[in-house]
Amino acid sequence: MQDLSVGTAWLHSLFLGFMPEWLAVTLECLLIGVGLMLLYAVLALFYILFERKVCAYFQCRLGPNRVGPWGLMQSIADMFKILIKELISLNHIDKFLFGLAPYLVIIASMLAFAVLPWGNGLQIIDFNVGIFFLLAVSSIGVLGILLAGWSSNNKFTLIGALRSGAQMISYELSMGLCVVTMVCMAGTMSVGGIVNAQEHLWFIFSGHIPAIIAFVIFMIAGTAETNRGPFDLPEAESELTAGYHTEYSGIHFGFFYLAEYLNLFIVSGVAALLFFGGWMPLHIPGWDAFNHIMDYIPSVIWFIGKAIALSFIIIWFKWTFPRLRIDQLLTLEWKYLLPINLFNLVLMVLIVTFKWYL
Amino acid sequence: MVNIQEKISKLFPEATFEAGDVMRVTVPDAQWHDFAKTLRDDEELSFDFLVTIVGMDWKENGLGCIYYLTSTKHNTHISVKVMATGDRQQPFIHSIADLWAIAVIFEREVYDFFGIIFINNPDMRRLFLNIDWKGFPLRKDYNDDPNINPVSIENERQTDFTDMWVEEADGKVVKKERRIFAEDDFVVNIGPQHPATHGVLRFRTAVDGEIIKKIDIYLGYIHRGVEKICEGLTYPQTLHFMDRLDYFSAHPYHHCLCMAIEEAAGIQISRRAQVIRVLMDELSRIASHCLFIGTYCMDLGATTMLFYTLRVREQILDIMERTCGARMTFNYDCIGGVMQDLHPDFVKDVHALLDVIPKNIAEYNKVFTGNVIAKNRMENVGVLTREDAISWAVTGPNGRGSGWACDVRKCNPYSIYSELEFDEVVRTEGDSMARFKVRVEEMVQSARIIAQLIDNIPEGEYCVKVPKVIKLPVGHWFKTVEGCRGTFGVYLESDGTANPYRLKIAPPCLPASAVVDHITEGQKIADLITIGGSLDYIVPDIDR
Q1: pTM (2 d.p.)
Q2: Domain spans in chain B, listed from the N-terminal domain onward
């Protein structure tokens, strides 16, 4: 398995050769920032096209197929369109909060990118409470949504935002408990540590029953957390037109839209990290030749491939199920998922204590 | 079977009778409310279903209303004529809103068009026209000068108040102002431009958090005055407007007016034409229910279903296009038969359709009906009891979902339906799921009807010769058919000329939209969408 940290270390020493350390670190941070922005844009464009194609095939359609071969350029064209669109300014709103809200939403998803395990040694920051940090920053998003709904001064957005608040705060509990369950298994909160703990076997296999339960709950909670169907109540089109972002236009609307897709990636990425070994290739104990072949596939491809495969499942949900009602949504969380989750945590602790894992 | 006429004349000696396709009883306004109560409550009469209220302006003979009533128990029909008291400036009739829930809306419609004030109606506002409209358009002396009611470039004036006219002890009628909503209600406008209202319909919704307290339905955004326009047209011209009411399934409406005119003119149409008409009606029903399933699932968030159902609908529209030349407004039925003969491939295409329908319905049930989320969203949501369905005159699949066997094809067969073999689908739950399932099962029954007819289309002329100018004898006729969304009625009154004196359309969707307030109370906002979608009203049909 090639270690990509060799490359980053080489770059660091190269910079140190002709500049002081503080400048080198600043420059590296800048480079990472630019790289992150680019990655963000590329991923969002890819996801938009991906979802449109997937849903088109579910619906016996072809999806975008006019701009570029197989419609590949469609999202780029859409991006340019949204960039040149006018930002309609509204009267009777809180202009500062209205402007701030989309940035809060997008910052939340961007910060989460920092701790994702992109590849072997390719992690922006790997510290001892990485997964905790991820949960913390992804909660900032709900603040942006609440602000957007409140500052728009519109009854639909307000209802959308309040629904969203109730929904995201509830489902964060489930997300958090799933993460705690898996942290139990890994014995560390560091993202790198969690990946390395799955070197011999992914947690979804080694943790068997509790890991599978946690995975299912995580996917449900993750879908709810990203406001995607069947949990897309905050922006339930047929009820609240566009929910909290009804009043937004141009790139401000685009930010919400991007954040939604990037959150989809983040949730699938975290699921890949917790249950499918992050960037770790598929290793099966005893099958040395197989494991060796798997190591030849670059770690970046492993991670992104897993994330996209999991996103596909979430997209599949969205285009199959009808939407839940708000009280049913909260019932599902508080009366079913949460008790199951608590029980599951106990189960996992027992398994770890008695070493019943594979 | 009790003799209705004898019984009524015993109880109300002042009533006069007039024979016709439906017996017409005339009673003075002073006795009307008591008479209506007797008609509804008497065991032997039990006329519990108010089909429609036809407002009439007989010029110098005064204004009045004709009430069409049906007994769901005995399957008998009666119409009651009540003349308004007072002068033309302020004519009065006593309201029957306390007896039939739907009368509130029907009386508002009459008030809107004829200016007849209904004493004791709790909500005497205009229904379709805006509140500043001058004059009452369906009166014969209405001045339609555009300068009197110019196209407004201002926002429409809105009010939170409504009027109620009550009779005081000394017989004087006075106006009282009432609030529509409580003073501190949080009122959300759902519509007119809203994806789930299926057209430009507006619900002013008072909510408490997510719970709906009251809905005030606000109509008239696409009111075109079809009834008024028809008074200036010849009979064949009036037909075209029927396509533009329920535009998702135009054939049955067209069929209804054709039958009314043919009956009035004494035209017998060929069997071939009748078979073609029934085939088209049933194809429309499948197409319409397909669209219902698709859009309803989309309202509930299951977008993919829309495409699955549109596949079948497209196939039907292709068949229609080949024969009728159009996909939406077919103009296919005409007085004397149908416009042109069937396309040579018609039989083959319909067979191909019949082959795919069972597979598709199985797929819909697999993807959607059995889904646990769909069940949670629809079961026990918006329960409409049988009594309420009748009182609100909610007919069609909605009424049948509440256990009311109201299919006109069964209880009052027209055309060749009495010879056909099919089941009336009735479910007793009365919730949104029942209304949904009734429609799915009706598709199967419609397919069954088509299968019976498709191989036995008799030879013959598709359209009989009719006079160039059609004049109907003096008289009045009322005809109902089973439209795709419920009982569709046409009241036709002729004064012997080539134009109808009055053509009243009784659409099924007006009651369906009016009942929304009643069955959403205490439910969630999301349920409004579920309930509205399950009632499947279509706005051009409501507004006309």
Answers
A1: 0.83
A2: 15-159+166-178, 226-543
